[in-house]
Design brief:
The protein is mostly helical. It is 41% helix and 5% strand. The protein has helices at 3-13, 17-20, 44-57, 89-92, 104-125, 133-158, 181-198, 210-223, 227-240, 255-258, 261-264, 286-292, 300-303, 331-336, 392-407, 411-421, 439-453, 460-466, 470-473, 498-503, and strands at residues 77-79, 267-271, 296-298, 337-338, 344-345, 351-352, 363-364, 387-391. The chain is globular, with a radius of gyration of 22 Å. It starts with a helix and ends in a 10-residue tail after the last helix.
Length: 513
């Protein structure tokens, strides 16, 4: 997004340490007994610094760039077991999910709570600052949007969880029972309603805006299959004209593209980074982890789901050539996946052949910035692609899905899907209305289009779960080593980590674990 806004966010973010420096344990879910604020919250500058610190919390684990790894829990990609940043993700797909499993699953629980703790600390203290009126309410709305985003992650992964509406006064007071999933969703809705009422109705500029909150609330409602409540929100976004599809699909996922107005108008909310001081990770990050170390390896099952350029599947199209199976495909395939035999070019035009071998035969290309190749540990200092949580294409596809579920195919449903398919540089033909002319048929086609459009962005895992098909789809696949994927009905929710159960006797484990 705009570089000046990103710089302000980064420069202010370091001031968060004024809030958290008392004890490193504040960074964990369970907060401190007390945190001094006597010298903070005295000016609007303090409030802006605290706000920037809340935004900076999103850079951790699956609320930041590593969210793309969640596609490895779906049918889209195999995760190389060598991912030391998010350990044990690979074994989560083959039946080894248990309360004692460390690594990624613990991060899926603890990271949102770190964000929530910072949100609650901000909300509990911001009224001390000499700010009144709409400006203060806007700051609160941004933080409540981020809190809603964090609780949405928790409820999707764990169901009913512990709700903290304020910063606990003591560690003991944090040890409370979990709420039901319905109560968590209601709390999320309250936060998002406040955000919608108080955020500016503007184009996204690095801070949450009204469209961000409308889009997130629509996603929350669709997850609960509340189609009739989601449609009006999505219609407001569409009618506002604040957002539009990018003119360059591939550029949506590169730093240069994200600073281009013709591209970034599609972005509705993102976790932001800014080189050289605020990169993904020292000596790592997307360019190295995806483009060099090959930690995400798309399955052929995903690749085969891309249509030919005529809008037909490979087994139906005269364009398909078995000798060149990936020619004449939907252009999004080549912009998302590095295909067999494809040569990546660096900025100077030389070939980049340094990627680790893929066990599936495919590598992830989306979010890899070849302008920085050849990738080395030093080049990671420039890896600062923003992770995009919500974009306008998703709004159009959510609208199509919700409308179809309500009343079946109509012109508005086809038009929404066709907008996504016909964007500049993709130019896929419109939906075949004679073929996809029932609610059931069009439902499957919209799900297909979501998979293709949003591939390797970290959404597929949640889509499979909300459609209640993960337990059918995932066991039909095998890892490159021949191990079948395992997903039972109990796995729609993850277990609470054993460490959380040990620390909080009132926390009851999810059923089946």
């Amino acid at each position: 997004m705009q570089t000046c806004n990103k710089m302000k966010i980064w420069l202010s973010a370091c001031l968060l340490m004024l809030i958290t420096a008392c004890d490193k344990d504040f960074l964990d879910k369970n907060p401190l007994d007390s945190v001094s604020s006597e010298t903070f919250w005295t000016t609007e500058a303090d409030v802006k610094a605290g706000l920037a610190g809340v935004y900076a919390r999103l850079q951790q684990n699956f609320l930041g760039y590593e969210r793309v790894y969640l596609d490895g829990l779906s049918d889209n990609a195999f995760l190389d077991p060598g991912n030391g940043n998010q350990a044990n993700m690979t074994v989560m797909t083959t039946g080894s999910i248990s309360p004692g499993l460390g690594g990624a699953m613990v991060n899926m629980y603890s990271t949102p709570y770190r964000v929530i703790a910072s949100c609650n600390y901000f909300l509990d203290n911001v009224d001390k600052a000499p700010i009144t009126g709409a400006q203060k309410e806007m700051y609160k709305a941004e933080v409540r949007f981020i809190r809603a985003l964090s609780y949405f992650d928790l409820v999707q992964n764990f169901g009913g969880v512990i709700l903290y509406s304020s910063f606990p006064a003591t560690l003991e007071s944090a040890k409370i029972a979990k709420s039901t999933a319905a109560e968590v969703y209601a709390f999320i809705g309250q936060d998002l309603d406040f955000a919608i009422a108080n955020l500016p109705d503007e184009v996204y500029n690095g801070h949450a805006v009204r469209g961000s909150a409308l889009g997130l609330k629509a996603r929350v409602l669709i997850t609960q299959q509340k189609w009739s409540e989601a449609v009006p929100l999505l219609e407001k976004i569409i009618a506002s004209g604040r957002f539009r599809l990018s003119n360059n699909y591939a550029a949506l996922f590169t730093t240069a593209g994200q600073s281009n107005t013709a591209v970034n108008r599609e972005i509705m909310f993102s976790t932001q980074y800014l080189a050289p001081n605020n990169v993904h990770r020292a000596n790592a990050g997307m360019d190295i982890e995806l483009g060099w170390w090959s930690l995400i390896q798309p399955y052929k099952d995903l690749v085969d789901d891309y249509e030919m350029k005529d809008g037909k599947m490979a087994n139906e199209s005269p364009l398909f050539d078995p000798a060149k199976p990936y020619h004449n495909r939907d252009p999004r395939l080549d912009m998302t996946v590095r295909l067999p035999g494809e040569v990546w070019k660096t900025a100077t035009g030389s070939a980049w052949e340094g990627s680790y071998t893929s066990q599936t035969g495919f590598l992830m290309e989306k979010y890899v910035n070849l302008a920085r190749a050849p990738f080395t540990a030093a080049s990671a200092q420039n890896t600062d692609q923003d992770y995009v949580h919500l974009r306008y294409a998703d709004v159009l596809l959510m609208y199509a899905e919700a409308k179809n579920e309500l009343s079946g195919p109509d012109a508005t449903v086809y038009a929404a899907v066709n907008q996504v398919r016909s964007r500049t540089g993709v130019n896929m033909p419109p939906v075949d209305e004679s073929k996809y002319n029932t609610k059931e048929a069009l439902r499957e086609y919209i799900r297909h289009e979501r998979r293709v459009e949003l591939a390797l962005e970290g959404q597929r895992y949640f889509d499979l779960k909300r459609w209640n098909i993960a337990h059918v789809k995932l066991p039909s696949l095998k890892t490159p080593t021949g191990a079948p994927l395992v997903f039972g009905t109990k796995n729609y929710l993850l277990p609470f980590p054993q460490s959380e159960l040990d620390n909080n006797p009132t926390l009851i484990q999810n059923e089946g674990y």
